[in-house]
């Protein structure tokens, strides 16, 4: 995944809301074929809270100072107006569910990991491709929001946030590791290749 400079994060545009009343949410679906090795979009934000979640494969969500690696069923809440970008590995499917602040049970104020149960995943996708009466759709959306914001008893161990260094001297090394995480060189060999000392 590309690393962007602080000024690029600072200039992140805000995209318009995709939620149209009386609806409470909307979900976009992106596959690895849509992005592959390039980010989905340069850093940007949304006026609504967003749940980025993985349906298949591996999805990477990047914020200015951290990155999240999501496997199927894993998601991360991103508060409204928070710059971010994402990339999907080949044969992956990432989903982005937007919910207006007024529809949330509790406000999304922090970037937070969340487990997205399989039944909820399928219903979110079902809503995106099937017609139904408006009142039924709104009722289903309301229940799904409640399920997504209800604390899960299942632990979310073994995944989460990966902090990214802000030091400009380290940026080329970070970009190289993110571009080729399977590189067989040792840490010291990578440091030398980028003119860095291990203390840096």
In words, what does this structure look like?
The protein is an alpha+beta fold and 200 residues long. Helix content is 26%, strand content 24%. A hairpin with a 3-residue loop joins strand 3 (59-62) and strand 4. It is elongated.
Strand order of the largest sheet: 1-7-2-5-8
Give the averaged pLDDT, no decimals: 85
Query: What is the CATH architecture annotation of the largest domain?
Result: Sandwich
Q: What kind of sheet is the major sheet?
A: 5 strands, antiparallel
Percent in strands: 15-25%
Question: What share of the residues lie within helices?
Answer: 25-40%
CATH class of the largest domain: Mainly Beta
Number of domains: 2
Global outline: elongated
Given the structure, what is the number of helices? Answer: 6
Low-pLDDT regions:
none
Give the distance, in angstroms, between the N- and C-terminal Cα atoms: 22 Å
In brief, what are we looking at here?
By secondary structure, the chain is α+β, with helices and mostly antiparallel strands. 26% of the residues lie in helices and 24% in strands. It has two domains: 6-149, Regulatory protein AraC (Jelly Rolls); 165-193, no CATH class.
Strand-helix topology:
Blueprint: H1 6-10, E1 25-31, H2 32-35, E2 49-56, E3 59-62, E4 66-70, E5 74-78, E6 85-88, E7 93-99, E8 112-115, H3 118-129, H4 134-149, E9 161-163, H5 171-179, H6 187-193
Antiparallel strand pairs: 1-7, 2-5, 2-7, 3-4, 3-6, 4-9, 5-8
Helix pairs in contact: 3-4
């Amino acid at each position: 995944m590309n690393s962007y400079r602080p000024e690029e994060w600072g200039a992140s545009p805000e995209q318009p809301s995709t939620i149209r009343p009386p609806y409470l949410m909307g979900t976009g679906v992106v596959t690895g074929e849509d992005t592959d090795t390039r980010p989905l979009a340069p850093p940007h934000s949304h006026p609504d809270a967003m749940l980025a979640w993985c349906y298949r494969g591996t999805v990477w969500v990047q914020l200015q100072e951290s990155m999240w690696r999501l496997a199927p069923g894993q998601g991360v809440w991103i508060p409204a107006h928070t710059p971010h970008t994402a990339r999907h590995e080949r044969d992956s499917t990432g989903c982005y569910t937007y919910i207006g602040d007024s529809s949330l049970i509790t406000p999304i104020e922090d970037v937070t990991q969340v487990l997205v149960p399989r039944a909820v995943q399928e219903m979110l996708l079902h809503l995106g491709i099937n017609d139904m009466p408006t009142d039924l759709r709104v009722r289903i959306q309301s229940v799904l929001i409640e399920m997504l914001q209800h604390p899960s008893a299942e632990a979310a161990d073994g995944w989460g946030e990966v902090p990214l260094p802000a030091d400009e001297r380290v940026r080329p090394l970070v970009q190289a590791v993110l571009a080729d995480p399977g590189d067989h060189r040792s840490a010291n060999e990578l440091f030398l290749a980028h003119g860095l000392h291990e203390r840096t």
